[in-house]
Amino acid sequence: MNLIKSLLDSRQTWQLHAMLVPGIVLAVVFLYLPMLGLVIAFQDFKPWLGFIHSPWVGLDHFRLMLSREDSVQVIRNTFAIACLKIVFGLLVPFVFALLLNELRHMFFKRLVQTLVYLPHFMSWVILGGILINLLGNSGPVNQLLSSLFGIEPVPFLADGDWFRFTVVVSDIWKEFGFGTILFLAALTAVNPSLYEAAEMDGAGRWQQTLYVTIPAVTPIVIVLGTLSLGSILNAGFDQIFNLYNALVYDKGDIIDTFAYRVGLLQTQFSFGAAVGMFKALISFVLIVVAYRMAFKFANYRIF
Amino acid sequence: MYYKSRKYRLFYICNFAFLLVASIACVLPLIHILAVSFSAKEPANAQAVGLWPIGFNTDAYKQTFSNPNFLKSIVVSIERVLLGTVIGMAVTVLTAYPLSKMNARFRGRTMYTWFFVFTMLFNGGLIPTYMVIQKMHLMNSIWALVLPGAVSAWNMVLLLNFFKTVPRELEEAALIDGANHIKTLWYIYLPVSMPSLATLSLFTMVAHWNSWFDGMIYLTDAQKWPLSTLLQTIVVTEDFSKINMRPEDVKLISNETVKASQIFIGAIPILLVYPFLQKYFVKGMVLGAVKE
Lengths: 303, 292
Prior knowledge:
- The complex is a heterodimer.
- In chain A, 74% of the residues lie in helices and 0% in strands.
- By secondary structure, chain A is an all-alpha fold.
- Chain A has one domain (60-298): MetI-like fold, CATH 1.10.3720.
- Chain A is globular.
- Chain B: The chain crosses the membrane at residues 12-35, 81-99, 111-130, 142-163, 184-209, 260-277.
- Chain B: Keywords: Cell membrane, Membrane, Transmembrane, Transmembrane helix, Transport.
C-alpha cells in the first residue's frame, strides 16, 4: 500500500492545475470582473470617461437609493414578496408531503408526484404567457368565478395587492412539487419501528404524525428554512418581469426589475449598479450566516 | 390498526380527492393553452375556450411554422442548448475532478474550491456583468448566451461530491496500469458517473432552453434571438419595437390561437425530456440538498 501511496503522491499534479484553467478563466472574466465592475457604484460613471476618469462620488448613490421614495418602496416590496414566498414555500410542500405520505395506492402516489413538479421545469415566459391569458379580466378564471359566485372580475394582475397575491400563489403552484419531493424523501426515511412502537402505545394516526413524523422531519425543515434566509431579497425576477405591468409598480416592482429598468433602460449605470450591490451585499451576509447556522445546528455542509 | 377506523377512512377519501384535484391543477393551465391553440379564431379571441378546443383546426400551427422569425429562433435555441451544454459540462467535469481529490493529494484544493464557491455567495449583478459583456465585444454574439453561464459552482459541487464516492481502488488500479489524471478521468470517472452526468446535462439543457433575459439584453438584433426571448417579447410583453414586422403580421401574431400555439411549442422540449428529468431528478435533488 505504501508503494501505491507514494506513486499517487508523486504523480505530477500539474495536470490537476491544468484542468482548472478553463473554469478559472471563465470565472475570472464573467464572474469576478463584474464584481470589480461594482466600483461604478461609487462613481458617477460616464461610458465616454471610462472606469478611470469617471468622478468618484463615494456613497452618494446608496444615500440616494435609501432616500428616493420609489427605491425604498421597491426594497419593501422585495422583502414582503420574498418573505411570503419563503414561508408558504416551506409550509405548503411540507403539508402536501405529509398528505401524500398517507397514500397507500402506489400507482396514484407516483401519478401525483409526476404531475406536481411539471411546472417547476417550465420557464416563467411560458407560464407568464399562460397566466396572463388565464387571469385576465374576461379570462377563464374570472369567468368561472363570476358564474360560481357572481362576483365582479378580480384584477389579479392589474391591482397592487392582488398582484402580490397572484405572484405568491403562482410561485407556490410552480415550485411546491419540487419541495414536496424533498420532504417525501425525508418522510420515507423514518424508521417504521417507531410507528409500530407508537401503535403499541395506542397512538392513532394523528398522534403518530404529531409525535413521530413531524419531529423526524423537523431538522430538514429547519435546514431549508435557514438556507432560504439567503434569498430574502430574491423575489423572483423572471416571474415578476413576465407578469407585471405599469399598473402594479407600486406594490409589485422589486429590486431586480427596478435595477434593470433604471440601470439599463434609463442608462443610470451607477445607480443601477448601486441598487444591485445593495442586494448582493445583504444576500451575501445572510447566506454566510445561514450556512454557518446550518452547519452549527444540523451539521449541514455543501462540500 | 389505525387505517381500519372509520374516521381514518373518511380522511383517506378526502385526502385522495384533494391530492387528485391539486395535481390536476398543476397541468390544467397547459391543457388550456393547448385547447386554445387548436381552436377557431373567434371563440379563442372571445376567451370562450376552456379545456377543450372549440372549432378544432390546426391553422395556428401552420401560421406559426410559416413565420421565418419563429423558425429562425428555434434554430438559435437549439444551437445555444447544444453549445451551452457541451461547454458547460466540459468545464464542470474538468473542474470537479481536481477538486474532488483529497487535500493531501492536491495542494491548493481548498483555495480553488473557495474560489468557485465564492461565486455562489456574491455576484457583480446585472449592470457590471452587462458592461463586461459589452467590453468583451460579445454583444450580438451567441457566445454571450453560452460563456457567462458556463461556470456553475452549484453543478461543480454536485459533481465533485459524486466524484468523491468513486472507490479509490478503481483509481489505484488505473494508476498501476500507468494512467495519468486525464486518462483516469476519461476511462474511470466519466463511465461510472454517467447517471450524474446525465442529470446535470439535462438540467443544463433545460436551463438554456428556458433562458430568455440574456438574449433580450445582449442581442440587440432580434434576428439572432432564441425562442424564449422571442416569446417573451412578442407573445408575453407584446413589444414589437425591436423586430421588423409588417402590420398584417403583427395582427396575425396577436391572435390568441397563434399566441397559444407558440407558447405550447416553447413547452414541447421540456415535456419531451420530462420523463428523463423525473427519473434522475429525485436522486439529484436529494444529493444536493440533504447529505448524510
